[in-house]
Amino acid sequence: MMDVAAHAEGLLRDVVEFDGVELVYVEYRPEGSPSVLRIYIDKPGGVDLQDCERVSKQASALLDEENFILHRYVLEVSSPGIERPLFKEADYRRFVGKEIRLITTETIENRRKFTGLIRTFSEGILKLEFDGETYQIPFSKIRKANLVHQFK
């Protein structure tokens, strides 16, 4: 079975990034009627409605041309928001020194929820400073993680 999100991401990456916008993540939700193909984009200073509309038009044309999603779906183009989700290993390396909130798939040192600073990320291991301790959390055990926005 084809990984629709991965195929769409490969198809769209160059087009989106040529436009000066980062393709953060592509998510495909086949459950529900219609299905949803969600594209998260970002750029320094954040994206605006015009960025989302432009990427939506480009993506829609490309997806229609390729025609690999065989049933009805809704295309959504969105900013990841100020509490940006972290999806890939590269996201953790990029945001070293930033505060994140995460949930693990299983208990690590008697807990599953952490809020702390990313110290390092290498070889698939996140080192997260939390309550004066440094936790080593394997990327494979992270269920969900987001940046924590600091209101000034």
List keywords for this structure.
152 residues, alpha+beta, GMP Synthetase, Chain A, domain 3, SH3 type barrels, 2 domains, 5-stranded antiparallel beta sheet, 3 helices, 26% helix
Plain-language structure description:
By secondary structure, the chain is an alpha+beta fold. The chain has two domains: 75 residues, GMP Synthetase, Chain A, domain 3 (2-Layer Sandwich); 59 residues, Roll (SH3 type barrels), CATH 2.30.30.180. It is 26% helix and 41% strand. It contains three helices and eight strands, in the order H-E-E-H-E-H-E-E-E-E-E. Strands 7-6-5-4-8 form a five-stranded antiparallel beta sheet. Helix 1 packs across helix 2. The longest helix is centred in the middle third of the chain and has 18 residues. It starts with a helix and ends in a 5-residue tail after the last strand. 20% of the residues are buried. The model has no long low-confidence stretch (mean pLDDT 92).
Chain-wise SSE layout:
Blueprint: H1 4-18, E1 22-29, E2 35-42, H2 49-66, E3 73-78, H3 89-94, E4 99-108, E5 111-122, E6 125-130, E7 133-138, E8 142-147
Parallel strand pairs: 2-3
Antiparallel strand pairs: 1-2, 4-5, 4-8, 5-6, 6-7
Structural domain count = 2
Helix-strand topology string:
HEEHEHEEEEE
Helix count from the secondary structure assignment:
3
> What would CATH call the homologous superfamily of the largest domain?
RimP-like superfamily, N-terminal
Task: Supply the CATH architecture of the largest domain.
Answer: 2-Layer Sandwich
Give the beta-strand count: 8
Tell me the radius of gyration: 17 Å
Overall spatial form:
globular
CATH class of the largest domain: Alpha Beta
Beta-strand content = 35-45%
